Amino acid sequence: MKIIADLHLHSPYSKATSKEMNLDGLTKGAKIKGLNLLGTGDFTHPFWLKELKGKLQEFEDGIFVYKDVYFILSTEVSTIFQKYGKKKEIHHLILAPNFEIVDQINEVLAKYGDLKKDGRPILNLKASELVEILISISQKILVIPAHVWTPWKSLFGSKSGFDKIEDCYEDQVKHIYALETGLSSDPAMNWRISDLDKYTLVSNSDSHSPHPWRLGREANVFELNKLNYKEIFEIIKKKDRDKFLFTIEVDPNYGKYHWDGHRKCKVFLHPKEAIKLNNICPVCKKPLTIGVLHRVEELADRPEGFVPKDAIPFKSILPLYEIISYTLKINQLYSKKVIEIQNKLIEYFGNELNVLLEAKKEELEKLVDKKIAENILKVREGRIRFLPGYDGEYGKPLLNDELVIRKTFTSQKALSDFNKL
Length: 421
Known about the structure:
By secondary structure, the protein is of the alpha/beta class.
């Protein structure tokens, strides 16, 4: 049974999250995207939990169903603590096998933070204490460090993270089996760090909206004998390459924190250039936000292109809406024209992931402009350039062979040259 799963998302009870991220919106969005298993998100919030208990039907051990879409109980929490004389804030994705265990989790975590305040609660706990508490409730709980490279609130982030997993999770690191790559890194970047070889790399959208350009933009593809919590838990724990087929990734250049930069000054820099400037913004002279690529370079002990022998493969995509909008040079969301073309393709091929990963050129060209068809294939094959994302700004795909000149603060270069750094 092939399962395409997005395990990390949020409910309407999380800050800055669409009201459409209810169960009806999630199931509709999942079918459009081509997902058949979703994390519930936010099971720590009492109002959302009440809705989940009232509407989800148990399908199999630890798996629930609503309107023909499967769900697994999940949440994200933030832990705030002091270590090495610095404030640390780390986000964690949590999967749980049933509502009884969720109730126990919430009863304990309520002692460390206000679970009603946000769907992603802030807890006054060390990361290691969180894991110890959860594992004492059940060995079947899965704790996954979330978006591990994002500058803020992540395991390796430049603002409040660590250089080693052991420094964060201490003696509880033995219960960490997987890492979530986040939008600004992909598995190939993580493969450069030998200490990460033992961990299963998972990819999820962390979506706050049910639209197909957000939900499922990253996902995990499993081949299961039987859809239940135990099998998914064991696949992730054991890094089972026979059953974990691949992850679906956006190109890390598309992520909001891939390069170094300063959004207010519209400055974005490759790490090599940022280092030459002592990581200081050349416009306002304030510190740059150090991006994911920079942090990977700092911690890497392998060259680019290294592939561990037991690596789980990945496939790179971009949301279909983005491909169409940038091809047509309509660089805005909710364009009626773009949505019409997007929906035409989705209706014909069944869902968006079929368009992005499976559709043949001849079929695409029967439905849409040849340039759109060509760019769908170029994205699939990794043949596109980007203006990389930085300091909270999404990267921009260059789908029309644009020649972009940008200031490097040492010389003027075309982007095609700059990408060779």
